[in-house]
Design goal:
alpha/beta, five-stranded mixed beta sheet, seven-stranded mixed beta sheet, Nucleotidyltransferase, domain 5, about 20% strand, 12 strands
């Protein structure tokens, strides 16, 4: 087990603590302090099939400094697989979480917000109507992004973890309603997207489809086989397994499933992002962590510090997707990333803002 790269500037525990210490000073107004110390703030919201997430950051070097973050399991896609629609309880949970985000953003000036919705809103027939309701009740104007942009945003955020000595990388993001794949060419460490795919299977869809059977040996193997079969088309186009045998291919996983496996492999007493993000697991370490989770059963998973009761239904379906990916593409290592769409959105917002500011300065000189 190795650390691929030192924790990048964009998210470190020390920086988060610096923010908290600064904001705790009562003698300085928070608004003035944010402008004077940190510069402009940007916010990214990601409304997925299972989670509602927010990240607020300010430019810092080539990345950003985290000012605030929020994540809540809302299960927006609950029942979507069977009905094709978002149900009322799920929409209410998401609205409640987004109202909490709006309240947090009201405490600080934010130059720009981008809010994105993914698979649940892409698939649901009432997805657009729900997002109109979101705008009315929270003020957030969500856009439904394509599966390609979803892969691109994940790649953007994970690029600092990709090694410079590789030829190819396969990035996978196991979500609630879908699993995104990005096949990447590395040229002097710079990634170029060769191909992408979005499989209509994620931890929520598999959990609803298999239920309690997913906790059994036969049910778990059936989930793995089902996902592996769905991967064959992508493999037939790009011949990734052959590239892996020839060497120079890195697997990089970004999802709650992969970070949970890393936490188990590291024997963490509680989950800590700084200990997980950037870790490179050997294939046997990842397999051992997966086997351990499977042996715990429902009660053991509920008590595990890296799982807990809120995620107990989704861990083994995620492990099944991971097992299928590593079965079809048996790379010797997998890089673990605790970052994803929010970070990619923030990086794009900051880059676009810098470009605008540069043009304005150039215009003033003219």
């Amino acid at each position: 087990m190795t650390l691929v790269q030192a924790q990048p500037e964009l998210v470190t525990a020390e920086q988060v603590n610096d923010v908290r210490r600064v904001e705790a000073r009562p003698e300085v107004g928070r608004t003035d302090l944010a402008r004077r110390v940190f510069g402009p703030a940007f916010a990214a919201l990601d409304l997925g099939t299972n989670n509602c997430r927010m990240l607020v950051g300010t430019p810092h070097g080539d990345g950003f400094r985290v000012l605030d973050s929020f994540s809540r399991i809302v299960r927006l896609g609950e029942g979507l697989h069977g009905s094709g629609r978002l149900n009322e309880a799920a929409m209410d949970r998401a609205i409640c979480a987004l109202q909490a985000c709006a309240a947090r953003l009201a405490r600080r000036p934010v130059r720009q917000i981008r809010a994105i919705a993914t698979e649940a809103c892409r698939r649901a027939t009432n997805g657009p109507a729900f997002l109109r309701r979101v705008k009315q009740e929270t003020g957030f104007d969500f856009g439904i992004i394509s599966s390609r942009e979803e892969a691109e945003l994940a790649l953007e955020s994970c690029t600092p973890l990709l090694p410079c000595d590789g030829r190819r990388a396969l990035l996978f993001d196991i979500g609630g309603g879908s699993t995104e794949l990005a096949w990447v060419r590395l040229t002097k460490g710079a990634p170029h997207l060769i191909g992408y795919d979005s499989l209509p299977v994620g931890v929520v869809t598999l959990s609803e489809r298999w239920g309690d059977a997913g906790f059994t040996q036969d049910g778990f193997e059936a989930m793995v086989a089902d996902v592996a079969e769905r991967l064959r088309a992508f493999e037939s186009v790009h011949c990734i397994a052959r590239e892996i045998r020839d060497g120079g291919v890195r697997l990089l996983g970004t999802s709650g499933t992969v970070t949970t496996l890393a936490g188990v492999a590291l024997n963490l007493e509680r989950y800590r992002r700084i200990a997980v993000d950037g870790v490179e697991l050997c294939s046997h370490e990842a397999a051992a962590a997966l086997t351990h989770l499977r042996t715990l059963g429902r009660e053991g998973l509920m008590l595990h510090p890296c799982v807990g009761p809120d995620r107990v239904e989704f861990v083994l379906p995620g492990c099944a997707v991971f097992a299928a990916i590593t079965r079809v593409w048996p790379a010797p290592h997998v890089i673990v990333a605790d970052r994803g769409l929010r970070e990619g959105v923030l990086l794009r917002l900051i880059r676009a803002d810098r470009l605008r500011q540069g043009r304005r300065r150039d215009g003033c000189r003219e």
